[in-house]
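thread: overnight batch results

M.L. [08:02]
morning all. the overnight job finished for the chain we discussed friday. pasting input first so we're all looking at the same thing
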Amino acid sequence: MQHILTLYYQHWRTFRGRVVKYFASSIVLRMIRIRQSLSRKGVVGGVILSMVFGIFSCNDEVDIIEEGKVIPVVYGFLNIGDTAQYIRVEKVFGEEGKDAYTTASDSSQIFFGPELEVQMSVDTSEGWYTLQRVDGAMEGFPRDSGEFYYKSNPLYKLLSAVLDFRTDAPVYLRLVLEGVPIATSSTRMVGPITMRFPLEPTVYWDHSKPLNVRIRTTRSARVFDIRLRFHIEERPFDNPGQVRQVVLDWTPLQLERRTPSIFQFFTIDAGALYAFLASHLEVDPNVQRRLVSFDIGVSAGGEEFEAYENLALANVGITGALELPLYSNIEGGLGIFSSVSHLFLDGYELDKSSMDSLVTQKVLQPYNFVK
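M.L. [08:03]
and the structure it wrote out:
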């Protein structure tokens, strides 16, 4: 079982490098500093802006730090394959003259209490279901320590069996504070992923033929990651009985945007594989290596990922704005509410011809690969 909060803590082996993994608790200081130092909201640097906090539109003049106003920040990636869905809701605010570090250590300033209800529905005409407020630490999701309060990790939980989640169908979210709705959002549920190719455990993959990956998914899946995990044995020449297991993770395709279709096809060039191995292994003339097997992982994200990517790309380049606009799909708040799906299959091997090609590659000669 893979929960959405697993994606939070392991981040970003799935959508790595594109979505920053911190929310309200880690943007209190950030937003206060932004207000003090910038008249336009944005971040210039080597990290693409987080999808989980943003402004309501591309209007750079919106001041998200309004004196005395509490703004909810939502983080939720639904997964139709999970037995429970978790939503994280915190708050961000600004208060002139108050030390941000003191605020960050005060749980009442970061988390909502019982006055907040988080609700979901698949058909609002049939009513809303209120999520249970739980401690994430007791659910297997402890909070990272740091400058911010971390002794508990409030989350909102809903057993998947309570709602009739349907592939490609809408799911609605709303936050109700003391009986008054303060924020809403919606997404479409990305369905399960099934592998259509390769189906056999032995694959042909060398310079003459790329690795082909074909999957069946749903039309609500708009962006994809392909992740490969390689299992390598290392044996010293002078002590071949001493085996060391090495695991290397590679994401050759990240946030790959595709038009809606139930079938998707991806190719990965063998040259890129050889270059990856050469850049992630150390040259050691006393060690012999063998690629034992590899695993294939596929992640799919909903249209909100595509919207974020479009927003970023529209502001990059010679004609783009200097600062990228922030993205949010929470009306009345900040953050991201979307859907994801994951597939992970292990135990693939290169066939004899592909293994021959790998061990004879010039770029891999210093690494002593054998069949």
